Each structure stands twice: as structure tokens, then as C-alpha cells.
Amino acid sequence: MARSPLHAPGPGSGRAARTARLLWPLALTLALATFLTGAALIARYGPVAPALGTGVAGVAALALLERLRRDHRAALDEARRQAGLVAARDEEAVRRDAGWRAYTEEQAGYVRDELVHLLKERLPAATSGTGGIPPAGPAAAALAGTMPEVPGLLDRLLAEVAQEAADQAESQRLSLVELASRVQTSAHRIQATVTGLAERFPGDTDLLEATMQVDHAATQQARHAQSLKVLCGEWPGQQWQKPLALVDVVRAASGRIVAYRRVTVTGEPDLGVHASVVEPLIHLVAELLANATEYSPPRTSVLVTVRAVQRGAVIEVDDGGLGLDEYRLGHAREIVSGRRLLGVGEVGEIPQTGFAVVGRFADRHGFQVDLGPSPYGGVRAVVLIPLELLETLEPAGSRSAQPPAAAPPVHPAPAPAAEPPAPRERPRRAPGSRLPQRRSRRGEGPGPAGEAPAGAAAPAPGTPEEAGDWMDAFFAGGRGEPDPPPAGPTNPHPHDSADPPEGQP
């Protein structure tokens, strides 16, 4: 079997072998010379002298042979010693190789574990833009002693990725806010245009009905645009100058949804809310009403109750839908309460923005929103407005004579001819507006002589938003009884609505 380089004899054993190869021919030469010398001496001097010479030569040959034997033994010993050293070096090399392999595998395991932690935990948190990046894993501490540059390199890489993701997210957010603002402005311009058209032709009933429908559609457009801005971290720019009754908050919110005629509100009329949170509360309630009408049978009403409680006031919205299972209800409660804030990128491919917007408003303004089973079989949404945001308003009768300053004058609807005149009803808020809204009494009987006609126009406010609000307030009183609604929605998504037109999935 061939020897490996590690098992080859050392340099000492090679020199001993070469010495042995030289001494054997020399010993044979000396022995032959001794024999020839002895023969020559015998031939010349007789047997005595040759015997003596032969003895001397033999002794010399024996001495030489002993020297040769010792050198050969020494050479063998040296060879064995060198072989032992080589074997020891081989064993040391094998031991070191095994140790190095174990070390490299251990370090590779640390690197692998840290990379897995980076990719599964830290990198998604960095790219999500929510902050709170998890710290390095336990493997980073082990790497710090042997490869200190690796943890630092990963941290720098993660910081760069997080910054790049944050920059891109901010750029997208600003773009969406700008687009939503343009859509909202466009909706207000549409409302202003149809308001002017209605003022020019106040006696054209068909035109008035068409402008009313266009104005209401523009109201939906403006609400959806504002919802998108809220999900992007922006907040409504509209500011109310005076507090508003909570029942009027609900009425204004109902004007911002498609099925506003299905909303029935009852409750204490003297509970008001600070002007600073009127607009956020209207938008919040509008999203809950949109969801309730979307997920309840189309011929049923959505019941809204306003009442005072010890910690403030509550607005309860009950729908008659199928309700939610325990898992989806718990998930929805996390969102509407504001405990889990969703961004515009987390509302799904088919955006379900309602609950996400509610949660944003609840978190920002201190409203407490919760969901639970409704006694009507669907879902009950409860909005708690804390005491510090409430105001006690004037009695309803005195407020009906003096509507809010932002509202233009609106003529009261005629009373039924067969009944005695009833006290004038406190004006409803216009859909999505600061304005009072007339109740439709068409079909109840002709009004007394001299009453203003139902289509009489009131002065329109100046701004596009106020114009749109006024349009909805004015024409709501002239609507007939609602048409039979189409079949209910078939949206398979959780109990959250982006408020599409009724009858569409």
C-alpha cells in the first residue's frame, strides 16, 4: 500500500539507509582484500605470517561490520522515531481539522439563525413602516465575539431598508392624500354646480330631482375621499362653529350614506357635542350607518338610539343582519376600538375602509367604540362620547325656532289638511351637512292656502361644500316615499362596508 506524504520516513532514516548501502560494498571489498592478502603472504612467507595478517584483517572486518550493524540499527530507530512524529502530527492535524470544522459549522449556524431572524422578524417590521423593529436575535451576541462586523453590517442594512421603505411609504401617502383632496374638491364643485342649476330652474320638478340625486352622489364621493385621507393620517379640515345635538349628528351622518332613508333615530334631543369633534363624529357615525345598512335586509330600518349614561352619552346603531361569528367579531372590535390601527395598505384588495376609519377617529378623539350582538339578530355598534366632549343644549323647542347659524332658511313642510296644525318639528340636519333638513310629507294631504310650495328654493351658501350641503337639505324634504329597494348585498367580506350603492356586491 502506498504511503501518504504524512507517513513517509523522515530525513534521518534516509541518511541511515544511504550509509548502509555504502558500508556493505566496503565490507565485502575489505573481506576480499584480506583474503587475497593472506593468500599472497602464505605464498611468500609460509603459513605463520599469513595467519597473522589474516587475523588482523578479520578483526578489522568484524569491527567494520559491527559499525555497520550499529549504524543500521540507529537508522532503523531514527526511522521509527520519525514515523512516530509523523503519526503524532497526523493525529494533531486530524484533531485540529475536526475542531475547525465544528467551529465553522457553529459559526455558520449562528449566521443562519441571525439571517432567519432578520428575514422573518426584523425585515418585515422595517418595511411595514410601523416602527418597533425587533432587536437582534441571540445568535448576534455569539457572532459579536468572533465576527463583530456581521451584526453591525446587518443593523446598517436593516436601517437602510427601513429608511427606504419609510421614504416610499411617505411618498405614496402624500400622493394618495393629494389625489383624495382633488376628488373631494371635485365633489364640492359638482355640488356647487347643481345648486346653481336648481336655483335657475326652481319650478322644474324633474330637474330638481336629478340635481338632488347628483348632489347626493357627490356627497358619497366626498365621504370616500375623506375616508382615504383619514387612513393616510390626514384629518377633516371642516370645522364647525357651534356644538351640535347628537341626534342631529346622526341625521347629518345618515345623509352621507346611500341608504339614508332607512335610518331611524330616536333619543334625547338636548345632548350636544363640542364643535371641535362634530365633523369627526359625523364621519364616524356615517361609516357605522353605511355598514349597518349594507349588512341588513334592504327593507328593514337601521335603528339608532341616543341616550345619556353616567360616563357621557352613547350612540347605539342596531342592524338586522346575520351578525358575525366570534372570531370575526373579535377582529372587528380590535379595529373599531382603535387598538389596532389599519393603514390604507391594510384594508384589502377590495377595500373595506369603514371600520378602519372608525378606529382612526376613536383613537384620535377619545371616542370609545365597541361591537356586540344586537337584539335584532345583527350587530350593535356602540359609540361612547366622554363627558368632557359633551354640552347641554337649549331645549328642542327653542332650537327649532332658531336653527344653527350655518343653515340657510328652509320653509316648513305643509301639515295635513285633515288634522289640526302641529308644533313645528325641530329641523333635521342635512345629509352630510351643517344644515337643517325638511321631512317629506308628500302624500299626507294638501297644505293650507298661502303656504310656500314644496319646491321653493332657499338662498344657497357661498362655498362649494355649503352649497352641496344645502342642496341635500333642500331636496330631501321634497322626496316622495322611497322606492322599494333592490335585493340585499352579497358581499362575502367581513361585516365592514365601503358603502357601494345598494344592490351591488
Can you give me a brief rundown of this structure?
This protein is α+β, with helices and mostly antiparallel strands and 505 residues long. It has helices at residues 11-45, 48-128, 138-146, 149-200, 205-231, 246-254, 278-294, 326-336, 354-365, 396-401, 464-476; strands at 244-245, 263-267, 271-273, 302-309, 312-318, 368-373, 379-386, 390-392, 428-429, 436-437.
Structure write-up:
The protein is an alpha+beta fold and 505 residues long. The protein has a domain at 5-127. It has helices spanning 11-45, 48-128, 138-146, 149-200, 205-231, 246-254, 278-294, 326-336, 354-365, 396-401, 464-476; strands at 244-245, 263-267, 271-273, 302-309, 312-318, 368-373, 379-386, 390-392, 428-429, 436-437. Strands 2-4-5-7-6 form a five-stranded mixed beta sheet. The radius of gyration is 50 Å and the shape is rod-shaped. It starts with 10 loop residues before the first helix and ends in a 29-residue tail after the last helix.
- Please tally the β strands and state the result: 10
What kind of oligomer do you see? Answer: single chain
**Biggest β-sheet: strands ordered side by side in the sheet:** 2-4-5-7-6
Q: Give the count of helical stretches.
A: 11
Secondary-structure element order, N to C: HHHHHEHEEHEEHHEEEHEEH
The secondary structure category is alpha+beta
Mean pLDDT: 74
Nearest-angstrom radius of gyration? 50 Å
Question: What's the shape?
Answer: rod-shaped
Amino-to-carboxy terminus distance: 84 Å
The main pleated sheet reads as: 5 strands, mixed
Q: What proportion of the residues form beta strands (DSSP E)?
A: 5-15%
Q: Percentage of helical residues?
A: 40-55%
Uncertain regions spanning at least 5 consecutive residues: 1-8, 400-468, 474-495, 500-505
